[in-house]
Specification:
Binding site for FAD: 231, 244-248, 284-291, 382-384
Structural class: alpha/beta
Radius of gyration: 22 Å
CATH class of the largest domain: Alpha Beta
Helix content: 40-55%
Function: May have a photoreceptor function.
Cofactor: (6R)-5,10-methylene-5,6,7,8-tetrahydrofolate; FAD
Number of helices: 17
Protein name: Cryptochrome DASH
GO molecular function, one term: deoxyribodipyrimidine photo-lyase activity
Order of helices and strands: EHEHEHEHEHHHHHHHHHHHHH
Strand content: 5-15%
Distance between the termini: 62 Å
Length: 431
């Protein structure tokens, strides 16, 4: 009997999951597995938890939802904790699996883990097959090789939109044949050495992990409220659930794929008409693709102080007090403080807020941008390695920004985007 393992990572979904579909097609039975990688719960060199409380909660909810959805199809999720190269190998031996199917990684640490798993499986005569499941456009369909991808987004976008097509989605399997899988046991907060975060009534949205919540949010934002039709006008908002799609957390954990969102945008446009706003959400998904392809192109460079730029920028000072003031919303700027308090208390911040606090960190505080990126990594529910480090490098002037030094006038930004001070009142009055 041919048995395959499906190793779920940041692709915690059934809809549009090529690894799962191919595993079912090529095997007699499938064992879905998720491994809580101990390396993801360590303290980084910058002194922050790699995975903070908010992202951990979203992950736990996403894993539980995946298990529930798998069980409806006759399967279930085997949950492991430890080093993936050891734990996946044990499961392969236990089920005598011939092949492991998984999502293909692009960032350095994730690729290192993938390689360790592949090496461990090779010793067991078990193959690891990976699939690109995280982007709107498939890397093989781009009009250029990875090494030749333009470093400027506009050039990349124009040529890609003109010359490449988006592949259709993989539908949800109708059934999955699996050996009997015991009820799932997920790690406790104590196991992860974290604390369950308190609910914050001021949060822009109460995120809930999992594919079920992702599809509900998409249906609400597109078809119930038709907010998609005004997305371009409202996306720079700062208060409330509906000024933007808020898909980022589910995209980051892979509870929904960019192609599944695109598929529904096309359906929405047929029913309600296409406009600048419906296009703009595709445009944002393309930005997300761009950073993933940049990581494929430049690999470790996005984690260097100099980023992908050849010349070394002026050395930045490290100040524990300035870092603490920034994190805790105690800087000289009430606009920065309000945004940082929202992040600290909810694990989320608007796109407009992120650009401003990053600019402030790099330009006003003159700090090493990687420290700010590492804090975001720990704190953000929607942390995605490529988008986070790519955007921080961009704002620090060492990434893909053709202007090289993007400086935000914080006071002007506050006047433009929080004209009546509604956002600042919300976050500063109780503090």
């Amino acid at each position: 009997m041919k048995t395959a393992i499906v190793w779920f990572k940041t692709d915690l979904r059934l809809l549009d999951n090529e690894a799962l579909v191919k595993a079912i097609a090529q095997s007699d039975q499938v064992v879905p597995v998720y491994c809580f990688d101990e390396a993801q719960f360590e303290t980084t060199t910058y002194g922050f938890n790699k995975t903070g409380n908010y992202r951990a909660q979203f992950l736990l909810e996403s894993v539980q939802d995946l298990d529930a959805n798998l069980r409806k199809l006759g399967s279930g999720l085997v949950v492991l904790k430890g080093k993936p190269e050891e734990e996946i190998a044990k499961i392969v031996l236990q089920y005598r699996a011939q092949k492991v199917f998984a999502k293909r990684e692009v960032a350095y640490e994730e690729k290192q883990t993938e390689k360790k798993v592949q090496d461990a499986l090779f010793k067991l005569r078990c193959e690891l097959e990976t699939f690109s499941t995280s982007t709107l456009y498939h890397a093989e369909d781009l009009p250029f090789s990875i090494k030749d991808i333009p470093d400027v987004f506009t050039s990349f976008r124009k040529k890609t939109e003109f010359d490449a097509t988006i592949r259709p989605i993989f539908e949800v399997p109708t059934a999955i044949t699996s050996p009997e899988i015991a009820p799932m046991e997920i790690p406790s907060w104590k196991d992860l050495d974290l604390k369950k975060p308190k609910k914050e009534s001021r949060a822009a949205i109460q995120f809930k992990g999992g594919e079920t919540a992702a599809l509900n949010r998409l249906h609400y934002y597109f078809f119930e409220t038709k907010q998609l039709s005004v997305y371009k006008e409202t996306r720079n908002g700062m208060v409330g659930a509906d000024y933007s799609s808020k898909f980022s957390a589910w995209l980051a954990m892979g509870c929904i794929s960019p192609r599944a969102i695109y598929d529904q945008i096309k359906k929405y446009e047929k029913e309600n008409g296409a406009n600048d706003s419906t296009y703009w959400l595709v445009f944002e998904l393309l930005w997300r693709d761009f950073f993933r392809f940049m990581f494929k192109k430049y690999q470790t460079k996005f984690f260097l102080y100099t980023g992908i730029q050849p010349e070394k920028p002026i050395s930045k000072k490290a100040s524990e007090s300035a870092l603490s003031q920034w994190i805790n919303g105690k800087t000289d700027s009430d606009f920065i403080n309000a945004n940082m308090l929202e992040l600290k208390k909810t694990g989320f911040m608007s796109n407009r807020g992120r650009q401003n606090v990053a600019s402030y960190f790099c330009n006003e505080l003159q700090m090493d941008w990687r420290m700010g990126a590492a804090y975001f990594e720990s704190q953000l529910i929607d942390y995605d390695v490529c988008s986070n480090w790519g955007n921080w490098a961009y704002l620090a002037g060492v990434g893909n920004d053709p202007r090289k030094h993007r400086y935000f006038n914080i006071e002007k930004q506050a006047k433009d985007y929080d004209k009546d001070g509604e956002f600042r009142k919300l976050w500063l009055l109780e503090n």
